[in-house]
Amino acid sequence: MTDANWFAANAKDIDTQAAIWLERRDDQAWSAQDQTALDAWLAEALAHRVAYWRIKAAWGRADRLVVLRSAVSDAPAPRGRFIPPVLLKIAAVFVVVAVAGALAANMLTRPKDRVFTTPIGGHEIVRFADGSQVELNTDTILRARMTTDQRVIWLEKGEAYFQVKHDALHPLIVMVDNHRVTDLGTKFLVRHDTARLEVAVLEGRVWFDVPDGRMQPPSLPLAPGQVAIASGRNVSVERKSMRTLTNELGWRRGVLVFRDTTLADAAAEFNRYNRQKLSVPDPAVGFIKIGGIFEATNVGAFTEVAEDVLGLRVKDHGSEIVISR
Amino acid sequence: MVETTEQNREGADQRRPDAEMTASEVEVWFVREVLPLEAILMRYLRHNWRDRGDIEDLRQEIYVRVCEAAQRQIPDMAKPFVFTTARNLLITRARQGHVIPIEVVADIETLNISTETPGPDRNVMAREELRRLQAAIDRLPARCREAVILKKIEGLSRREIAARMGIAEATVSEHLATGMSSLASLLYGGDPGRAP
Question: What is the pLDDT of residues A6-24, one digit of tens each?
């Protein structure tokens, strides 16, 4: 099909069709028949699928814009909110565009999402009216839609610890990209890095759903001590001891707990919490194992150990500290 | 230590050498590895193909070919694979058109395509990403931009957007669909981060 003629079909036309499908799918009126029709269109040609994936990915990236909303619409700042000044500035540009001519129609009722963010090194606790509590770790963006009939939290990036007040009729759902974590009465941890998602259950149970239920078994039940790790195409489940999990939650007390941790991993952990980044260029040095409890934002205490205990060289270059032999 | 789950065993995750990749695997690979290359791919195509009207079709054709191959086996290195595919396509097309621009053959070596994979898009900081998005949105046509903002920032439904903008729902759909496909080209193909 691809080699037969110059071009199977005009790329612009296919892009337009893909966008129309995506736009329709986004709306509430989307039905099972619509899905069948879309599936058929996608199955028709690889060119359709590729165009669809591409536009879907771009549209998904634009989800990030939601962080601008809190500055635009909500009135009193709830506890735990932090809006970096730069966002306010960007938001101000949007206010002009979005609010002009739109305020009059603002009477429409709809669930308001609230956005919570922490800066690098930040730690916030958000308590919701239903009794649930979410703790945000460093450099985290989280959007919450908590209404009487719906409880959804989107973890846009970062890490959060959830202690959920169970309500069987309205389970709390945490969305990370297309992955879905559904609470069944639970304490659990969700960490969302660039290429990796980790869900660890400490108490109770959760359902873990991977994207595209048609391709894979829809749900994976997770019990305490089980950790689901999704990266790219793979999902695996590991078992971790409660002690390990508690250590991983050290950030709730502001500390990092290392046990047999390589220097490279420890440095990467510190770098999540601090603007001044640790760098361990020599792999042989990176493999050195260390243990101990450190204050997450006290890089100095850590480099002192590297210097005094391990006999390594520490060089401060301002934005970067290099540890070497 | 690592338990393989039911899902792994039965589902699409297992990597058997001869297995066909599932659509979701190809999609994940395409979005993560190929789309970030779009900006330099478009530069390459513009540089090596005279007829601007063909560029988007060429891009699409390259994506289809690359994904076709990925359905059988995900390539180890996306970047050299995409650019080899691009060069081969240009050469084929040039022959069909009885014109062989010399640059087509020569330029691939000079384009400085390294085999390292991490594209700049992968690790952009949240703020940088926001700036890019904002720049991309700023380039949309006014009404289209307004609809996209109401959708993405305000989270309004199609009906609510129609009410706010005082236009028909069908028109909102058109604006949003236009916005979606333009955003894809601005975010991946262009370089909105450096837009004036």
Answer: 444 688 889 989 999 999 8
Query: Can you state the angle between helices B38-48 and B102-110, rounded to 10 degrees?
Result: 140
**A304 has pLDDT over 50:** yes
Asked whether the beta carbons of residue B25 and residue A233 sit closer than 8 angstroms, the reply is yes
A179 Cα to chain B: minimum distance (Å): 13
Whats the size of chain B, residue-wise?
A: 196
Across residues B166-192, what is the average pLDDT? 87
Asked whether A54 and B33 are in contact (CB, 8 A), the reply is no
Cα angle A283, A288, A293; round to 5: 125
Residue B125 confidence class, pLDDT cut points 50, 70, 90 = low
Q: Under DSSP, is residue A150 helix (H, G, I), strand (E, B) or coil?
A: coil
Which of A8, A23, A90 has the CB atom closest to B177's CB atom?
A23
3-state class (DSSP) for residue A183: strand
How far is the alpha carbon of A232 from chain B, nearest alpha carbon, in Å? Answer: 7
Q: How many CB atoms lie within 10 A of CB A55?
A: 26
Q: Which of A90, A234, A235, A238 to mutate to test the interface with B (most CBs of B within 10 A)?
A: A234
- Type of residue numbered A97: V
Residue of A nearest to B187 (CA): A58
Three-class SS of B123-141: CCCHHHHHHHHHHHHHCCC
What is the structure's pLDDT at B97? 62
Residue of higher predicted confidence among B96 and B30: B30
pLDDT one-digit tens code per residue, A140-166: 999 998 887 788 999 989 999 999 988
At residue A68, the pLDDT reads: 62
Query: What are the chain A neighbours of B28 within 8 Å (beta carbons)?
Result: 232-233
- Listed in order, strand segments (DSSP E) in B39-165 are none
Which residues in chain A have their CB less than 8 angstroms from residue B8's CB? 234-236
The minimal CB distance from B188 to the residues A10, A54, A84 is found for A54
Both tokens of residue A81?
Answer: 């909110």
Dig out the tokens for A284 from the structure.
């042989």
Predicted model pTM = 0.46
- pLDDT > 70 fraction of chain B, expressed in percent and rounded: 70
In chain A the first and final C-alpha atoms are separated, in Å, by 59
Calculate the alpha carbon distances from A321 to A266, A284, B32 in Å: 14, 17, 31
Name the more confident of B147 and B5: B147
Contact A84 B127 (CB under 8 A): yes
> Given pLDDT bands bounded at 50, 70 and 90, which one contains residue B107?
very low
Q: How far is A294 from chain B (nearest CA, A)?
A: 26
State the count of interchain CB pairs (< 8 A) between A and B: 210
Report the DSSP beta bridge partners of residue A221: A207
Q: Is A265 exposed, middle or buried (0-12, 13-18, 19+ CB in 10 A)?
A: middle
Kindly indicate whether the ipTM for this predicted assembly is greater than 0.95, answering yes or no.
no
CB–CB of B150/B157 below 8 Å? Answer: no
Task: Say whether B64 and A233 touch across the interface (CB within 8 A).
Answer: no
